[in-house]
Every structure is written in C-alpha cells, then in structure tokens.
Amino acid sequence: MPLTPLDIHNKEFNRGFRGYDEDEVNEFLDQVIKDYEIVLREKKELADKVADLDERLAHFANIESTLNKSILIAQETAEEVKRNAQKEAQLIIKEAEKNADRIINDSLSKSRKIALEIEELKKQASVYKIRFKMLIEAQLEMLGSDDWEDFNKANDERNELVREG
User: Fold this and answer.
1) What top-level branch of life does the organism fall under (predicted)?
2) DSSP symbol at 123
3) Scanning 18, 50, 72, 152, which has the fewest C-beta atoms within 10 Å of its C-beta?
C-alpha cells in the first residue's frame, strides 16, 4: 500500500549516536509531504479527467455506432425506395403499352369499319349513278318515241274540242 502524507508526517526515526539534525529532517519531511500531497492531488485530478474522457469517448463511440447504423438503414431504405420506384415505373410502362396497344387496335378497327363504309358508299353511289342514267335514258327514249307525239296530238285535239265546244 502506498504511503500517505499522514504516514510520512507521523514517521519517527530512531535516534542514534550522532544522528541527523532533527529540524532539518522535519523541514525536509514537511517539504516531501507538501510535494507528495500535490502529486496525489494531481494524480486524482488526472484520474478524474481520464475517467471523464473515457466516458466521453464511450459516448462518442456510441454516437458513431448509432450514426453508422443510421447510415446503413438510410442506404437500405434508399435502395428499397429505388427498387420500388423501378417496379412502379415498369408497371406504368406495361400499363402504357397495354393502353397503346388497345388504342392502336381500336383505331385499326375503326379504320377498317370506315373503309368498309366507304366501299359501301361507293357501291351505292355507283348503283345510284347507273339507275339515274337508266332513268334519264328512259326519259330521253320516251321523249324521242312516237308515243309522245301521239300524246301531244291527242292533247291538241282535246284542247280544240274544248274550244269549239
């Protein structure tokens, strides 16, 4: 066990023949006690400081560990968000492709329907043209026939009878 300042102070030496000067020894011991007390006080202060620094170091090590874990969690979360965003983007693209295919198919269907309607209208126009031509030819033939002249003669005769009569 180390000496304390009190141990040094209470130490008594045996006296021998022609021993040391008691006052000089006591004065030296007083100086040693003072220096020893200073050393012990400094040692205690340094030990307290070391304990405080160890505590702070442990605190900062804990913060570092927490920050590292937080960074890892943030990175994992960012990766998960990125993966989810990519999946969502793929779903949106697939949905857009389906819609585009549907729109194209609808457009092609409408285009075919309109083309069929146009063909039908062309046929009807052709039939109408042929019928109209036939009607005009029939009317021209009727105008050119003798029946028309007979009709005019009969009509003229009737008009004359009505005047005379």
Assistant:
1) Bacteria
2) H
3) 18
Contact 25, 13 (CB under 8 A): yes
Counted residue by residue, the chain has a size of 165
CB 7 within 8 A of CB 31: no
Cβ proximity of 8 and 32 under 8 Å: yes
Tell me the one-letter amino acid at 75. Q
Residue 61 φ then ψ, to 5°: -65, -40
User: How many domains is the chain built from?
Assistant: 1
Tell me the pLDDT tens digit for each residue of 123-152.
999 999 999 999 999 888 877 776 666 677
Token digits of residue 106:
């609808």
Write down the pTM of the prediction: 0.44
